[in-house]
Design goal:
alpha+beta; Arc Repressor Mutant, subunit A; 2 domains; three-stranded antiparallel sheet; 4 helices; 59% helix
């Protein structure tokens, strides 16, 4: 079966992504391209097999807004955890300084 070659616009529609995403896949070497004729001269054609493989490897079932929301929740959690670690770090540093000054007896 011969390889199907699609215009960038048709490739984007088929994969359910923006045309710029297809161009990014080209840049990253995820899809092969070749030049082909068009009504206005030449156009870039995208390998259909590569397109299907690359599109299938994308995370399924999550839209961009859902991913952004999930990342915002994770970011908030990580910021909170970082603050807790920084407070604990400061407490430990204060304890070390107190021991070094002789303000507190060392644990045995």
């Amino acid at each position: 079966m011969p390889t199907e070659w699609l215009s960038r616009t048709d490739a984007a529609e088929r994969a359910g992504v923006h045309r710029n995403t297809v161009i990014e896949w080209e840049r990253r070497g995820l899809v092969r391209t070749k030049r082909g004729p068009s009504r206005t001269g030449e156009q870039v054609l995208v390998n259909g097999t590569d397109l299907v493989r690359t599109a299938a490897s994308r995370p399924e079932g999550s839209s961009r807004p859902e991913r952004v929301a999930a990342l915002e929740v994770e970011n908030a959690f990580l910021r909170q955890r970082l603050e807790e670690v920084m407070v604990e770090r400061q407490s430990l540093l204060d304890e070390i300084l107190a021991i070094a000054r002789g303000d507190r007896p060392q644990a045995r």
